[in-house]
From TrEMBL, chains A, B, C:
Record's protein name: N-succinylornithine carbamoyltransferase
Organism whose genome encodes this protein: Flavobacterium suzhouense
Binding site for carbamoyl phosphate: 47-50, 75, 110, 147-150, 272-273, 300
Family affiliation: Belongs to the aspartate/ornithine carbamoyltransferase superfamily. SOTCase family.
Record's function text: Catalyzes the transfer of the carbamoyl group from carbamoyl phosphate to the delta-amino group of N(2)-succinyl-L-ornithine to produce N(2)-succinyl-L-citrulline. Is essential for arginine biosynthesis.
Associated pathway: Amino-acid biosynthesis; L-arginine biosynthesis
Length: 316, 316, 316
């Protein structure tokens, strides 16, 4: 693997999940693989799980992990080609990406979308600028349109908890007080299309995800119908894609409640976290045995370690 | 040891100090004990000594140390049970504590008091929420009411510098421009009650510490009287406990000066640092041979390393 | 080597460059030299290259690297002797420097100048306070008046890319929207005076550097004349030294363009980065084969590793 910025970079999902599973069984088995290699983790935005689990994954492989908060610890970056840099940006991404490549063997970067400039967000201009100018492999720690490390952890979690060969997996929109990105649902849609599951998306009208990604997936605006016989409920809020970045609804009837869960086939409840309690999901669901959000978060380490392993192996 | 959030968690102070002493003599002797273990250090507040010495202690034991500033690098946390999370808090401590437990083998956390809400502070709601929800041992890096790692370093320092079997140790209040927490004096009181010392507290009227903690300790409002024949002077400011969080006095006559020190038995001067020069203590004392604040700070490493050792040993 | 806060601390430049060259050829050859040693990196200001390359250098030597942003993560420091600390500064540098010396075997520190108080800046009051009070070797990560690690990387780069025994090296001022420090040009001047080069400085009138440093160096206000037959063009902006910290000119005719480069002897283009594109230098130069700014940045690791090596060796 030469880069990992999209679920599209996964060539064989089954093999990747199988690798993550064996890493989870023996996380320190390859603790020499990353010797004398450095992972640079660059953050433009807050992070808890991604920050800790990706560092942990690197350390498990014997890599060094250097974390940097680009906004507060470094120089403000310019992304425009040909810019006359007489403003507030002190450094062009052309130099920054090449320079970090001198010190780090793999660059991992988080950059959230603007949610106001759809075109810019869809260009993934930050991640793609690093991909373009860096001389080493680049990993997305969540970009504008995808969160692929989360998707690998999600697929691993479904694999671990499924009780039938082809489970029904439902991605449901749920209400949230703030406008949220599409990266997590986009990557979840992409990875579920690669998995052997019966996949359904449910959301209120006006909340279509990018149709390019959801093509071929069953979509319903009837949440109850979607929940019927489901084995996994994956809840997530996102802002409108068509009316870009807008909040069209905070309808509490979309909150995942114990009543809703009774419509399912004893479904497991999933969420990428952080989760707004009693907005996205009621306490009674999140605190029940049906919830697997904590083991799902735990799988972030093994997902990241599997990706780092594949990138390190490619280098040799 | 399963947790360390209070001096009350010390079962045998002599044995702990003895462990710290032997660690200090050979700090790298157990550099395999923490192999493949990760300490997560979570900070809600500034820190110099605690941040560096606890990392150093972990590294000496071969552990990985991952530091995170929760306010700026992570998500703002909700602590209320049953909250409808439609405000600014993005993640409930229930999830945060469980999630960090997936990546870290020990969680260490710093959270200062509000000094406005006495009830909330006394509940130690941050530290206790982590204790309640984390699945791994929790260490306090200073909470609302205690700073137990400091207390271990303090006890070790007294042990090292005492010249008689049962020295007289005086905790004296001293003036400061800002309202300060009670955590350091509380923990010092608790640890001195466990030590074989003649312990006296002196402070102006209105500056009683929590009487639950000071029960049985000699308290005087006459600083000179307290200093008489003292072997150790431990200076510290705290805000009023009764008139919670208020500054009742900045009386410069309580500053520790060379004149005051002449009342003692060539006492050593101690302070947890950071210290306000010429408020808490005059330059002439702090820069004299009587001051042992630097070796006291150095002992923070060995105190932390002793606690980490005991927690790691318990796990096995 | 007992400290490294100025180019003046280099006793034998050739030997240092030779050491850096051999380290670059085998960066992990001495990975036990720093075992159980800790480098503390203290930042008062933003940093990308210095932050990453110095950490990398320490890790290559088997050292632990602990990074701390003093402004946001620690206590605000007092530097005045005898201060009555009743203001916003919580800790005196006397304690801070001694305390960090308890936890770290080498202290590295970055502190930019005020550019308003010339006297204070020239005293290097931050770096020098750490030098005075620390009990371990101190390295400058860029102070008010020097950036010596950059200078070592610069000298190494000139050594690597020169095609004749005694190349002509030109330091040219170039325009910039903000007032910048003199540390980089000062250290570059100092190191070039130690190197076997034909060294010329060119800048507009009013932009003299500290004459103490430039004594004996050819200085011209005619940039074209300076560029004639040059082998290296080192561009850098600085604010006025005489009219301290002021911007006297943003004259775009001083920008390094392809036309200007044709005056040279196929010169290599150097800059310490971050660089303002199309202010300091036009895209066409920076994106050409003449530009060696990325390998120059890469050399920061080996420069730092050479300095750390010399300091570690001195300790034994």
């Amino acid at each position: 693997m030469k880069k990992f910025t999209s679920v599209d970079d996964i060539q064989d999902l089954d093999e990747l999940i199988s690798l993550a599973t064996s890493i989870k069984a023996a996380p320190f088995a390859d603790s020499e693989k990353g010797k004398n290699k450095t992972l640079g983790l660059l953050f433009f935005n807050p992070s808890l799980r991604t920050r800790l689990s990706t560092q942990k994954a690197a350390l498990n492989l014997g890599m060094n992990a250097i974390v940097m908060n680009l906004n507060t610890e470094g120089w403000s970056l310019e992304f425009e080609d040909g810019a006359v840099m007489d403003g507030s940006s002190a450094e062009h991404v052309k130099e920054a990406a090449q320079v970090v490549s001198q010190y780090c063997d793999i660059i991992a970067i988080r950059s959230f979308p603007t949610l106001t400039d759809k075109e810019k967000d869809e260009e993934e201009y930050v991640i793609n600028a690093f991909l373009k100018y860096a001389n080493v492999p680049v990993i997305s720690l969540e970009g504008s349109t995808e969160h692929p490390l989360q998707a690998v952890a999600d697929a691993l979690t479904v694999q671990e908890y499924k009780t039938i060969a082809r489970p029904k997996v439902v991605l449901t929109w749920a209400p949230h007080p703030k406008a949220l990105p599409h990266a997590v649902p986009n990557s979840f849609v992409k990875v579920m299309k690669k998995a052997d599951v019966d996949f359904v998306i449910t959301h209120p009208e006006g909340y279509n995800l990018n149709p390019e990604f959801t093509k071929g997936v069953t979509i319903t605006h009837n949440q109850d119908e979607a929940f019927a016989n489901a084995d996994f409920i994956y809840a997530k809020n996102w802002s409108s894609y068509d009316d870009y970045g807008q909040i069209l609804s905070k309808d509490p009837s979309w909150t995942v409640t114990p009543e809703k869960m009774t419509l399912t086939n004893n479904a497991k409840f999933m969420h990428c976290l952080p989760v707004r309690r009693n907005m996205i999901v009621s306490d009674a669901v999140l605190d029940s045995d049906a919830s697997i959000v904590i083991p799902q978060a735990n799988n972030r380490t093994y997902a990241a370690q599997a990706i780092l392993t594949k990138i390190l192996e490619n280098e040799k």
